[in-house]
Amino acid sequence: MAASIYDVIVVGAGSVGTPAAMYLAEKGLKVLCLDQFSSPGQGSNKAAIGGLRATHSAPAKIKLCLDSIKTFSTWKEKHGFDIEWFQGGYVFVAYRAEEVKVLQDLLVIQKQAGLNIEWYDKDALLKLVPGLSAEGLIGGTFSPEDGSASPMLSNCAFHKRAVELGVAFRFNERVTSIMRRKGVVVGVRTDKGGHATGCVVNAAGAWAKALAQSGGQDAPVNPDCHEAGITEPAARFLNPMLVDIRREPGSANYYFHQSAIGQVLFCITPDPPIIGSDRRETSSYLPMVARRMVGLMPKLTNLKVRRTWRGLYPNTPDGSPIVGRSKTLEGYINAVGMCGQGYMLGPGVGALVARLVTNTLTKDDEEILHELRPDREFAGTEALK
Amino acid sequence: MVEHVDVAVVGGGPAGISAAVASAAAGKRVCLLDEGSRPGGQIWRHRLGQVPDEAQSLLTKLDAAAVKVLFRASVFDVEDRQGSWRLTLSQGERRVAITAEKLVLACGARERFLPFPGWTLPGVMGAGGGQAFLKEGLELHGERVLVAGTGPLLLPVAASVGKAGGRVLAILEQTPWRRVLGMLPVLLAHPSKALQAAQLGRSLFGVPYRPGWWVQEAYGKDFLEAVRLTDGQREEVLECRWLFCGFGLVPNGELGVALGCAGTHAGLQVNKAQESSVNGIFAAGELCGVAGVDAALAEGAIAGLAAAGVWDAASVEGHRLVKARARARSTGRQLERIFALRPELRGLPRPETIICRCEDVPYGAIDPSWGSRETKLCTRAGMGPCQGRVCGPILIYQFGHTPDTVRIPYKTTPVGQLIAEEP
Asked: pTM for this one?
């Protein structure tokens, strides 16, 4: 008999795995969380710039993120750990008719899903975001309940809470295969040995596909690279996250916000996408995002950039996560393909996984799981990737 | 717009100037970049028109050579263009791009700081930093100054304090007497250094030199008022206005490590021609391991000649340089042994003592079981303006961490200057 048989093994101690382990333990389960890196959040969590929004186009993502935001926004008062939550909202700007159409079409869906979001015309938007370039501005959406927090501190907080709840964490341990017997999960094999369990949650982020395949499962998750950066702190001049979805030669969208402690964090999406998992930052995107940011908000020009980095977006073909049980391998659960939104989806997905494992799903949960089911056709596209 | 040169030299101290002069003499187009406003680096820091004697001949050669020199230039990006390097730098309000066939890194070294209670009080500064202020004209008007830390640098700093009108209470050298005596053979082997030491000794006549003593704590409300010192058994409290405290130097190897050169925070690895593990990148002087100005001069010349493709170790000049380098490196290693940091210094910080000054991270916030990544992710240590250049060596010393590399932009740069010109 093995020394420990875990109720659940969560693979990945990142944006999704850490809160999932925490919520599973909250349900009273005996949980092991494994990560190939040396501490929580060293996959893509540490590369996130901290934006937390429910402003999506897919209903499941909107609902999950609304739930996440509840966790982030109340964490400090509930647990006394300051994760630097700042409720500045999200603004998607429109300078051309095509963005106006995309954003206004989405408003309908977003409102239906319960999102607090409104269209602001040019003057209202300029009042909301002083310093925004007025030239050619048509308007934009504003969702005041969105915000930001520190991904590193959040994951530290979730990890601390998970440990308090009894989760066992093992770092520097890579899962090499999911062990099965007659179509049922019986454990995981790692580079350090093995662990017995009847339930494995794949929360391996950008590394999810290989893990799934090691259990004979498919996960159409392929990472691409985004580059981000941070400036020195400044007195507050910007409340919401600004998102510009215009595509330009070399880059798709880019976005930036001012964190609770005053630093401006920004991120740009290379176009065409850089597929792969090489996490070394390049010389190419910083000049590009600098130009675009100063174009959108000229007063950024004198703010000093401290460093840049590259992070991975574990993408799925339709831009929505893959969450749910496998139909072909009993005890295997996907919590993968967050498409760069693992940080904002994490607590929502983690809590959902905990309800799934303990058979305490609500009707809403069933709808979400249907939308994100692993065996869907991946035909749609997320408009606000 | 983009200037092209054969050799770009990063750093205008003895190693960099030596490299630039050597490459230019071999007929190469050379560009020398430095963050300061005059050539000479930290060691030959001087006011305009007051060139130090020992620097004169090399600076005259630099003036005469066809070297393009850019001062106040911070290199914030270096891109590998497969066969050449593209450097982007910020110079005042300007953004400048240079492409070069070969790179010589001669970024020198910086001071090592070690934390003790009170080390962040105004009035406490690095020995080298204090020296720089004095050279820029700080006047001390009879104020009481304590010089402490380790290494030969403490002596000229104390001498400068005296020259600036300060009253040096003592020089505290953490290394014990028996090891300080190990300097004697070094001095005997280098008559010029012995002469320098004798001159310093004369100017420091009457100043107590106290090996085996170190600072335990600095006190003061808004400014330094007193210092508590110890030799491990006895304790004393000295009232003073300034504490110049230096614990040796740390190589500025960050740019090289970021570019993939093999080596560590203690020095980049180079071959006999001063070439790093990355083809086309040479390194010379302190960033290959702290060894002083003689090593910098020899290695700079070798790197400059090698970058120009004319290095010949078998030539008369080559022979001389190899010998000078070996001698200087050997002295450097001896000094490193003599002035090795004593373990007691590790026990000085209290839980509330600041470790990372940029992000205000106290010693007690760092779990000793963490590595450098966890420390950074959980406390932000190393994420401030210096990007770990000050607290990195402290974390290495206190906790045995492996430092993170700096990232693009290698020096903090305003958003507006990062914008590339339209191609």
From this structure: 0.93
